[in-house]
Amino acid sequence: MTTETGLVTGDDGLARPGWAAADDLMREYYDTEWGMPVTDERGLFERLSLEAFQSGLSWATILRKRPAFRAAFKDFVPEEVAAFTEADTARLLADARIVRNRAKIAATIGNARATVGLREKGGLSEFIWSFKPAATPEPRTMAEVPTQSAESAAMARALKREGFAFVGPTTAYALMSAVGMVDLHLVGSHRRGSSGIWS
After folding, report:
1. Looking at the whole model, is its pTM more than 0.90?
2. Fewest CB atoms less than 10 Å from the CB: which of 45, 84, 99, 133?
3. 28 carries an active-site annotation
4. What's the distance, CA 29 to chain centroid?
5. Catalytic residue among 41, 46, 51, 151
């Protein structure tokens, strides 16, 4: 049953937004991962990379390809990806299991190098989480879900100054929501407030 807010009540009696009720993979991601805190460097680098690859595509496409992305990018260990060569770029461009976009591949390798470089300034986790806002939105419908914020715009600018690419305000905000820095679960969803960061 779909409500006017866009929430869908599943056979399990739990309310989710329509996108999270589309299939088993999206439902599992929504129920167990999206919006839960991620604070480790590797986890944040992976999510930043996947959000960049998602640009212009559906998240479901990226989620289905995530195992292949992890295999292709050495499980997103920053120093491993930072050491990639032109031969690795050629290998990735030939890998039909992932999104073969030269600019996004180059950005991921460059972002790995920037991530390693940030270790001298406290690291990627401290850097990204410094943009956590003082309050989180409380959307009641999908139309009320923001796609960027002042904090995500500031984060994007700061990341670019540190040498990161493919990190505009919208991508930064998608990262913020994915790792729990904001709670974009609709009011009424069974996941609202589940991160432990926002009550």
Report:
1. yes
2. 133
3. no
4. 12
5. 51
